[in-house]
Amino acid sequence: MSEIAQRLLAGEQRALSRLITMLERGDPAAADAMKVVDGHTGRAYTVGITGPPGAGKSTIVDQLTQLVRKTGSKVGIIAVDPTSPFSGGAILGDRIRMQRHYLDSGVFIRSVATRGQTGGLPRVVKSMVRALDAAGTDLILVETVGVGQTELGIISVADTVLVALNPESGDAIQTLKAGVMEIADVYLVNKADRDGADQMATAIIGMLHMSTITPEWSPPVLLTNAQTGQGIEELWVKIQDHREFLTTSGGLKDRRETQRKREFLEAVEEVLSQRLRNLVENDPDLIATLEKVAGKETDPYSAALEYLDSSRFSSDWLNAQ
Ligand SMILES: Nc1nc2c(ncn2[C@@H]2O[C@H](COP(=O)(O)OP(=O)(O)OP(=O)(O)O)[C@@H](O)[C@H]2O)c(=O)[nH]1
Ligand SMILES: [Mg+2]
Which residue puts its alpha carbon closest to atom 32 of ligand 1? Predict the structure, then answer.
């Protein structure tokens, strides 16, 4: 059995850091460890927080951590950062904002850069959440910045999704239209000290009423001031209410099962497209077909079907490394 997994399950903090670093680096030994770790997950509760840049997400995470630590619960924080590897500014910002927790052994903090990767949440985040869970973390907070798919990707890992906006995010209505309304469990209008916070809350409530979705859970809209901590206790109460709702309705089990199924399908897709890329590089027939498509000798769609149906594209190809 994987030694690192054993040490992690025994509660060794260093093993957790080590495994997370291995995951980040794509170390093959991490995959072995995850096979073991997976069977020891399900106890932690994961809260995702997303919203436009600068809404105050990290400050809220910091305040929530402060509050939850008073109960003795262990907290894990993963900040997903959309910056390229060339600019680590926002990561540094998060580090500074959360630094009061750095010396607390009950708080584990990591930033993950998406490195310009498009599409949902980086896969490694899901593995990190599992590692934290198996290591005995009670609450896992995942912060993603509201940029397209990464933002919606939070649903693939969180039990409760918080959407943070502020009076300055004038494009809030647009943000909400971009699929966010379907994933938000709790809305926060942060920077309640600024003008326009009440109006924004009212606008969100209005949109919620107009939406055709009639869920059994109506997402509350809270006003917070993350700098002073105002509204954070209420936020924590709402998170617990949502957890209670999901647990009693069976929604939590469904949500987590859906996440796992989706993750499996995404992994299949990922491996297949990797193999396909290798194929494109190596198969002379495929290269010839590409040239024909490029030269308009055949249309792309029929050429694709023909190629996939050809005997050459047998399951052997799919199995090729
Ligand atoms: N006035 C006011 N400022 C706030 C409040 N919450 C956060 N801020 C400030 O807003 C700025 C951005 O806060 P962050 O917590 O870094 O916001 P974020 O959403 O994590 O930002 P990114 O991760 O860069 O998208 C910081 O300067 C905070 O101090 C608030 O409630 N009121
Ligand atoms: Mg942040």
Answer: 191
Ligand 2 centroid–CA 227 distance in Å is 13
Token look-up 């809260």 returns: 47
- Class of residue 79 by CB neighbours under 10 A (exposed 0-12, middle 13-18, buried 19+): buried
Is the separation of the CB atoms in 275 and 321 below 8 Å?
Answer: yes
Amino acid at 16: L
User: What distance in Å separates the CA atoms of residue 230 and residue 224, rounded to the nearest whole number?
Assistant: 6
pTM of the model as a whole: 0.88
**Residue nearest ligand 1's atom 13 by CA:** 56
- Of ligand 1's listed atoms, the one at least distance from the Cα of 194 is 1
Residues of the chain where predicted confidence (pLDDT) is lower than 70: 83-99, 115-119, 147-150, 169-178, 212-215, 311-321
Fold annotation for 43-249: Rossmann fold (3.40.50)
Token pair belonging to 6: 């054993």
Render pLDDT for 270-285 as a digit per residue (tens, 0 to 9): 888 888 888 777 888 8
Domain boundaries, the chain: 1-40, 43-249, 263-319
User: Which SS3 state, helix, strand or coil, does residue 162 take?
Assistant: strand
**Residue 48 alpha carbon to ligand 2 centre in Å:** 12
User: Ligand 1 centroid vs 64 CA: distance in angstroms?
Assistant: 14
